[in-house]
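Assemble and predict.
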Amino acid sequence: MRRHRGAAPGIPAPRPSLTAPATPARNAPVTPDGFHRLHPLTPFLRGWVVVAAFGATVARNLAEDVTARAIGLTLLFLIPAAGLYGYTTWRFTRYRIERDGLRLDTGLFVRRTRYVRLDRLQSVDVVQPLLARVAGLAILRLDLAGHEHRDRSDGDHGSSTSDLRYLSVGHAHRLRGALVARAAGGVGATGLMGETGLTGVTGVTGPVGEAAEAPHERLAEVPARRLVAAIALSPAPWVALVGVAGIAVPSLLTGTRAGFLGAVPLLGWFWHRTIRSFATNYPYTVSASPNGLRIDSGLFERAYATVPPGRVQAISIVEPLLSRLFGWATIRMNVAGGGPSVLLPVARRADALELVGRLLPGVDLERIRLVRPPRRALLLAPLHGWALACGTDGAAFVTRHGLLRRHTDIIAHGKVQSIRMVANPLARVLRLADVHLDTTGGPVRVRAALRDRDEALRIVSTQAERSRLGRRRDTADLWTN
Amino acid sequence: MADVLLAESAGWRVLSPALRRLRRTVLVLGAVPAVACTAVIAVVAGGWAWAPLVLVPLAAAGWAWRAIGRVWQAWRYAEREDDLLILRGVLVRRLVVVPYGRLQLVDVTSGPLARRFGIARVQLHTAAATSDAVIPGLRPPEAARLRDALTERGEARSAGL
């Protein structure tokens, strides 16, 4: 095998036909005992990382005298090594859908079997990085519960994502559909799929195969023009540009070239906040399907995420100063077990409110009256104190903060994990206190800041009661709402 | 704050005095060498006129001694029907409400020193990393009882995420 590679350098992996029986191109190869392999192109894509790392090292060392011969010699060893590594990892990685979960075997020397229980599954995403997209491949990402810390059932060093990389796009979508449908308990909860999975011709054929692309209803989209406008209205690109000018102009005038180097990180930031931001957010569709909320996004790198609505814990509507003039907002959310943190990059406020109502059933932001903290709170927060407010109704607790960049944070009562009241010494002098409603990890933090002490206590005790009732109503173990 | 809550829900429990004893022992173990060092250095380097410098570590230790007592006294917890309350802090007062239905796991830990003093620490985890619910000094039987009670109620009232 090594010889084979040596004869054809530049090909970092053997031809797949060496091992797997001839399979239809659309499906992953199957071993006789019902296990599936990843797509045969996988080692090429993974090996690319090694080659790129090597390239970077060479480029960095170019200043020192590295001869072409040295590079060639290194390549002669590196490419077979990378190829062998890629091939073995591919060869010894296999997965199989079983009765109530997905089994994933990896490792050559240290065999590791990971069992992904479907009832712990939080979300299933299909991600397509650029290179994989060119090759027609995709990563299937499985998010499990217990993201923040050790979980009762999953002693796997806190890591709770399992990636199947890479699968062919069609296969990834079908597999996602099958897993999601089974996790939702819709199809084949009684072992219908278990049979097909075990006999495993493709693993996801049969009734589940059709369920793959569940019917979905489009909820929101991001028009390109609005996204461009929102990016232009955000301060970051302008700050970056001014910074670049501030560094570049003096160095141009004095003729020192080193000054330009200082501008490079700023240019990177600029690129990140404009072009990259556009490319990740442009074709952006949020749709509802029986399997949950679907978020499809990305211009070059496509990501297809599915979030069960019941798993959305808290939502934040962020309105930057200038976007607010146009009535635009960014919607962020916390998803239990990890998941996309942005719900919509740019939305009209009315759409945002409607979407909130969809995701947190029974929540109507317009109906909730926000109450400002007592005036003496301005002593502690002379500026942002003006924007603080909080309010509640039967369904949700809402807080507002941020003078320039206004955040409206919403949490449904049933989603509150714990309630904290914190009073620092200054606040205690003024008889003030903060109330935090803790939620799972994510961009949203719900905090009613600088409330009157007695009011804060009242919030804590009534919230405990409301959350208890809210939890009872909550049927969060189902994927559907 | 404490009095309002005390009125609201009876049954506050305090921590074991062993925790205070442990912390004060550690304090003394640190303070004695500090005072001794200060005394030696002051006398050797500056003469007897500098001896009062010893008062600085002594005062600090005295303040810490008192602070340990106050922190210990301020830390209390109460089991209500549906949630656990933890009240703590002297300078920054905190009240934490953890509903049983939200408990993901309960950790009981006891280091070598804590075991010598016969105390254990109970930490409650919810799906939120910010929950911050810790009860540091409990007698092991009480810690075990609390752990079992919490997990039992947690299962009875368990809600999904």
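Chain A touches chain B through 47 residues (CB under 8 Å).
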